[in-house]
Structures are given as C-alpha cells and as structure tokens.
Write a structure and sequence with these properties.
mainly alpha; about 50% helix; elongated
Length: about 70
C-alpha cells in the first residue's frame, strides 16, 4: 500500500499544502464536510422505493393512484 510509512503521509500533506496553500485547505475541508452532511440528511429524507404504495396524508384510506374515483 502507498501510505504505509509516516514519511509517505508527510510527503502527501506537504504536496497538498504546496498545491493549494495553507489557507485554502481548511476551507475546502470545511466545505466538503458541509456537503457530506447535507447529502446524508437528504438521503435520510428520501421517499421509499417508487414501487411501494404510499398513503395519501390527507386521506389515509386511499393510496396515491393516478385515477381517482368520481
């Protein structure tokens, strides 16, 4: 594996600091963390699979069918 020794990790960190700068790295990590938090929250709020029947919250006896009786 590539990152087995501490010197390899130190070398990668040094290259990242040289490429992106010391100020931009924490900002990028913070933005990535926020994005992941939002993504996980959206995954928790998703609806069940489309083939499962969903109940109408206004009328619990009916399911959401495209054709409604008149």
């Amino acid at each position: 594996m590539f990152l087995r020794e501490p010197t390899h990790i130190l070398l990668v960190v040094l290259v990242l600091i040289l490429l992106f700068g010391a100020k931009r790295l924490p900002d990028s990590a913070r933005a990535l963390g926020r994005s992941l938090r939002i993504f996980k929250g959206e995954l928790k709020n998703t609806n069940p699979a489309p083939n499962e029947e969903q109940k109408d919250p206004d009328n619990p006896g009916n399911t959401n069918n495209p054709i409604k009786p008149e």
